[in-house]
TrEMBL record:
Protein's UniProt name: Iron chelate uptake ABC transporter family permease subunit
Localization per record: Cell membrane
A Pfam family matched in the record: FecCD
Mode of membrane association: Multi-pass membrane protein
CDD domains in the cross-refs: TM_ABC_iron-siderophores_like (cd06550)
Keyword Transmembrane helix recorded: yes
Keywords per UniProt: Cell membrane, Membrane, Transmembrane, Transmembrane helix, Transport
TM helices/strands, residue ranges: 65-82, 94-115, 121-140, 152-172, 200-222, 243-266, 286-305, 317-334
Protein family membership: Belongs to the binding-protein-dependent transport system permease family. FecCD subfamily.
Length: 341
């Protein structure tokens, strides 16, 4: 590989970072009350032209944007990690029931048990995500053909439908809980403060560290279990570490923005395309960071579109992402090599 090709991955990361920075400025600038980008930049550096602009930027828009970055990165990493661990291109926290499991556990904790604090119900989110992922995996293994990508996806859809129905049933018993759940289930970053972002950062940081530490082993795992074992990889430990990372990342994201589907499905595929264009290949030491950069871009872009097209109200970011991800998922299922599995 030439020296010029070696710098291309770094340039790709820098380009994605620049795109994310632009989206952050737009996310802070656009909304029911739009703020010119130059005033946004001035406000960020402590020179806001008015107290109103300062309050809008720091009290509402900055926490919302920061939450989009953190939650988006968590969901993108979760999707890339799940696809690598299962060798399933259809894997996604939303499709395989992980997000639905976390949502059900949160609603159960809040609506039935009476847990009111974030640090109380976030542990239920982790437990729900873990139980749902194990259940989907066991259902996907049933039958003579064993575990296949399409069977795993169908098992995820079935578990998601069941848990979503149970979640709605619990929410319907409490009008106040139902009112909150309507926005939570659609995937929203609205009405969140800086304290909420700070609460989820430790969980996402630990999950990210675990995910990135898995990257070399994921490259070996892509060659098959036998090859990976012959290379000295401890497969059980790798999968346990991966499941812990997915549980932390998905549970933390769902606890604050709700079950946003398809980000974990779309982003890793786009990351692979960009990696091929950059000459990186299927190296998870690059694919995971690329996914962590691309996912916030997608989530913030969806949030911006939702705020602009329905102004002065807004369409929830999860709805916009689902509008994009639904056709993408159908196209993936219809691909010849998947439909024949």
């Amino acid at each position: 590989m030439t020296r010029s090709r070696r710098v291309r991955p770094t340039l790709l990361v820098a380009l994605l970072g620049a795109v994310l920075a632009v989206l952050c400025v737009l996310s802070i600038a656009l909304g029911a009350a739009s703020i010119p980008p130059d005033q946004v930049v001035r406000a960020l550096f402590g020179h806001a032209p008015s107290r109103l602009v300062e309050n809008i930027v720091w009290s509402a828009r900055v926490p919302r944007t920061t939450l989009g970055i953190a939650a988006g990165a968590a969901l993108g990493l979760s999707g890339a990690l799940m696809q690598a661990l299962t060798r399933n291109p259809l894997a996604d926290p939303g499709i395989l029931g992980v997000s639905a499991g976390a949502s059900f556990a949160i609603v159960l904790a809040v609506g039935v048990i009476g847990v009111g604090s974030f640090h109380g119900y976030v542990w239920f989110a982790f437990a729900g995500a873990l139980v749902a992922s194990v259940l989907v995996y066991l259902l996907g293994r049933l039958g003579r053909s064993g575990l296949t990508p399409v069977k795993l996806a169908l098992a995820g859809v079935a578990v998601t439908s069941l848990l979503s129905s149970l979640t709605s049933a619990i929410a319907l018993t409490d009008p106040d809980a139902l009112d909150r759940f309507r926005f939570f289930s659609a995937g929203s970053m609205a009405d969140q403060d800086g304290a909420t972002v700070l609460r989820i950062l430790p969980f996402i940081a630990v999950g990210t560290a675990l995910a990135l530490a898995c990257a070399p082993a994921l490259n070996s795992l892509a060659l098959g279990d036998d090859v990976a074992a012959s290379l000295g990889r401890r497969l059980g430990l790798v999968r346990l570490q991966g499941v812990a990372a997915v549980t932390l990342l998905t549970g933390a994201a769902v606890a604050v923005i709700g079950p946003v589907v398809f980000i974990g499905l779309i982003v890793p595929h786009v990351a692979r395309v960009l990696a091929q264009l950059a000459g990186i290949g299927p190296d998870h030491r690059w694919l995971l960071p690329l996914s962590a950069l691309l996912a916030p871009c997608l989530l913030l872009a969806a949030d911006i579109v939702g705020r602009v097209v329905a102004r002065p109200t807004e369409i929830q970011a999860g709805v916009v992402v689902a509008f994009i991800g639904g056709p993408f998922f159908i196209a993936m299922v219809r691909r010849r090599h998947l439909s024949e599995v």
